[in-house]
User: Fold this.
Amino acid sequence: MIWQYFAPLSRSCAGARGLRDDAACLTPPLGHQIVITTDGNIGGVHFPLNAPPWVMAHRSLAVNLSDLAAMGARPWVYSLSLSAPASFFSEQVLAPFCRTLGHLQQDYGITLSGGDTTVYNGPPHIHITALGLVPRGQALHRDGARDGDDLYVSGRIGDAGRGLRLWQAGQREGQDSDLLAYLAPTPRLALGQGLRGLASACMDISDGFLGDLGHLCHASHVTAHVNVEDIPLNPHLPWQDAIGCGDDYELLFTAPPQHRGAIARLGAGLNLPLTRVGYIEGIYEPFLQPVALKHGGLPVTVSAPSFRHF
Amino acid sequence: MIWQYFAPLSRSCAGARGLRDDAACLTPPLGHQIVITTDGNIGGVHFPLNAPPWVMAHRSLAVNLSDLAAMGARPWVYSLSLSAPASFFSEQVLAPFCRTLGHLQQDYGITLSGGDTTVYNGPPHIHITALGLVPRGQALHRDGARDGDDLYVSGRIGDAGRGLRLWQAGQREGQDSDLLAYLAPTPRLALGQGLRGLASACMDISDGFLGDLGHLCHASHVTAHVNVEDIPLNPHLPWQDAIGCGDDYELLFTAPPQHRGAIARLGAGLNLPLTRVGYIEGIYEPFLQPVALKHGGLPVTVSAPSFRHF
Assistant:
């Protein structure tokens, strides 16, 4: 019963053979490396327990795709390990869940290679491992930021954070773009691939702008200088909240100044704002905050939360 | 804290870069295909809730390795997505859990490429995706059994099933080999790789000899003929139970008769019994039981259970 929903999702993966074997057999294209990422999505932790099936499906696959985007990879295949209560394995849930996975597969060119399902009593666990492809040696990493690099962010920061507040306040319907930014994040795959050869470091923002910028700086052994006024922020949140809340899934990246023109053209071609929000300095103290924020010209300190509850 | 336990497990995976990036970047060797498999292991479903950490680690990785063995692949890398209550993320649990993963990595030549951990309130979920390598075109599949092929099984059937009964009866200590067969199954990786070019079909036995033989026959559109007396069974279980219980993780495979000598030499070289237990007939009725069992020369029918409870 269950695999009648999932087998069609593997149709364009020849090596999955309709999910009939113990495993799928994939042929990697010549000259490429494989990027592999895993994210668990658990009801009540990563998405609300009362989220509809399409939200569970979209978020779970999109956050993995976002990791591929951060590495500059193009999506290839993913596997799905799903454990959930018996009520999940019904037409009512599986049909919209798999329909949403199918839409994302089409939009981003990825296909299901296999998976595993288990019935148990507890919240749904949706564990996805996604594989992407990147031309050899061209993957982006978070440890490449260097002294003098520009610091950029894509899209707008805090939209998903405000969307979560709207959800928590009971809003469900309507086309509010902040609510959609939270429920159905857009992985920046075309951007990530376009940044190969331009960006010196890249990562996706899942835990909040400030916290993730700290991760990038620690990995690169550098300090970032940012004027808060330069960050494209959601106008409905206090700036301290907007730079601290998670789930943006925008890309945060650095590049040497000579690539400013190319990066502007890339953003224009993708119709996606790419905003220069600061610069990198090659100074690093492992036990100090590596992000120097200014607001109104004065240094400010904000503690970055990195957890969520429902 | 958590990644201090896991990062050393990725040390021999250059592309994991100490688990610092959003994803790992792997270089597949030329001329190989990638075999990918995913299994979720949930406390209270796949292993007892009171299983010690080393058992959770061993079983979770071994069942994935067994899927690679069934495809004739050699292990390459695996990712781990772990969701568990806060008590799991303590020295007391993580130290033996990771020590056991490390031992298996050494024994079978696989390395951690990355993963994800989540704290939640509920039984531990250990989702592993394992990648293996197989020379192009040489993977084993379960749909290749043909009329006149011999049917083989490795090792002994029912040992793990008896081990589970011992565990359920309260036995914990001692070197009982059946208990160990259940707690720490041995993936038949060298056998799977040795069967490339010999076996026409192959799969691992996770749901019980009878049920999984049915899967192989349905996939291959054939019927299997088996004399129960020819199956190497655990002597402490009724034969009906031994061929029905799961968790054996032996390999079930078919091969044309001209490979009998090569298969005997392979088993001798591995010091692993490979027993010819029947033959394949090219007759198939999709809605009939595709396994014709005889006991004492007379046809017998056994219904195969394929679920477990703790």
User: Anything to note?
Assistant: Residues 142-299 of chain A form a domain with the Phosphoribosyl-aminoimidazole Synthetase; Chain A, domain 2 fold (CATH 3.90.650.10).
